[in-house]
Give the backbone structure.
Amino acid sequence: MTTAVGNLFVIAAPSGAGKTSLVRALVDADPLLQLSISHTTRAPRPGEIDGEHYHFTDVPSFERLIASERLLEHALVHGNHYGTGRDQVEMAFAQGRDVILEIDWQGARQIRQRFPDCVTIFILPPSRDSLYERLQKRGQDSAEVIARRIANARGEIEHATEFDYLIVNDRFDAAFADLAAIVRAVRLSMRIQGPRQAGLLQQLLG
Ligand code: 5GP
């Protein structure tokens, strides 16, 4: 169990819920928030840049990261390994920043164990139709590929109720405002504000 210095936000969602766009917009709007770049053994997709979207690696290197305890959590997702680097998170906290992890439900469980004060958020699409529509978006995919994506999305959604907050991404602007509101409320919680405003409290009571 570890006490984080900054706030640790964990965001999960089935693919097709619009999580990545929401998180990117949030990080762009909030200089105190740092997105952790995960390590993965998945091959880069066209347009993905090493060190920006992921730290792309191979299985032996990933196993070395695990063995040397350089990962705060790791999981096998859709046949590929993914993990959160410890150094990045610790460095962000040392700089007084909050950290956001975009990970799956298995990783979220491990982070909850390690950082009991973390704040976990699950994002849902507004309906089954909209989810299926988004999962079928690349018109040339086979029925088998689409069926696998749907099964994977269901597997993630099954764990939604383990999370502290639930956002329905019907309209981007509204979902973004919801996400920003959670971050803001957490920063105003007594757990954070109590120690931060201890001097003021003392002065007012003195
Ligand atoms: P994709 O390969 O489509 O970018 O991501 C597939 C899944 O892996 C998503 O659900 C994503 O949240 C999850 N994922 C990405 N990075 C990590 C990580 O560092 N740890 C865990 N546990 N899951 C991750």
Q: What stands out?
A: The domain at 8-37+98-205 is CATH 3.40.50.300 (Rossmann fold). Residues 15, 38, 42, 73, 75, 77, 82-84, 102-104, 106-107 surround guanosine-5'-monophosphate (CB under 6 Å).
